[in-house]
């Protein structure tokens, strides 16, 4: 049983990131369909997903179209009750739903001033008073969720849940724009940047489509503050240690030098997403550690 999910550019589409995390972070099979934002690709693709108009849009294995991130999350939770999308404890689940709903509906100043761009990080974005007020509200509800649920780990309500997936693009905005938050909130942001599913999404977002100039700001930049990737680069020649792609099992056609060794992949995207962050990909790391 595999779902279909229409997404926009991974480097920029915050709502698509949320929708995809509901699948990847909780082990639910999905086939993604990528459409370029600000082009006719998305409306053309969504003709097969009526009446949808935005990404993400999900189609269930039995053909039901579901739009909007929270609706997708709730439908998946009802169809996969053992996947852990929401906390099992009733109080924690209520808290998680509360903060997720506020994220879905609010924080417009932060969204407007700090568009998600996973390809850049700025040293200073000159946050406005309204942005700082949004950050203060985020810190309030994050602390409240932890206090109410007794969460002691990195996530808001115990184990990673839909609530955390909803805030993943916020974490990316805070990291990407070097926004001021306290140490507890900074640790929460760092946990998002290190989350395996987030790292995989960002690795693909670095290489899947060309840059969108609409998201570039005239602010000084700095290196991305997430985990330091393993040294890697695409190469044109060499002898790969592996004969088949670690993802597809197909014969290798594209090469990369990773950690000083040569590995092969079945296409440019498999190679490039691995070069972007080798440690994000368990199938490749199994090959590297072999």
Order of helices and strands: EHEHEEHHHEHHHHEEEEHH
Helix content: 40-55%
Number of strands: 9
What strand line-up does the widest sheet have?
2-1-3-4
Rg, nearest Å:
19 Å
Overall structural class, as computed from helix and strand content, comes to alpha+beta
Q: And the CATH topology of the largest domain?
A: Glutathione S-transferase Yfyf (Class Pi), Chain A, domain 2
Largest sheet: 4 strands, mixed
| Uncertain ranges | none
How many discrete domains?
3
Distance between the termini: 31 Å
Tally of contiguous helical segments: 11
Give the CATH class of the largest domain: Mainly Alpha
The CATH architecture term of the largest domain is: Up-down Bundle
Integer average pLDDT: 97
Structure characterization notes:
The longest helix is centred in the middle third of the chain and has 21 residues, at 129-149. This protein has helices spanning 14-24, 41-45, 69-79, 90-105, 108-113, 129-149, 162-176, 183-194, 196-205, 268-276, 282-288, and strands at 3-7, 30-34, 57-59, 65-67, 121-122, 221-222, 232-235, 254-258, 261-265. β3 and β4 form a beta hairpin. α1 runs parallel beside α3. A 4-stranded mixed beta sheet has the order 2-1-3-4. Strands 7-8-9 form a 3-stranded antiparallel beta sheet, with helices on one face. The chain has a two-stranded antiparallel sheet with strand order 5-6. The chain starts with a strand and ends with a helix. It is α+β, with helices and mostly antiparallel strands. It has 11 helices and 9 strands. It folds into 3 domains: 3-79, Glutaredoxin; 90-201, Glutathione S-transferase Yfyf (Class Pi), Chain A, domain 2, CATH 1.20.1050; 229-288. The protein is 42% helix and 12% strand.
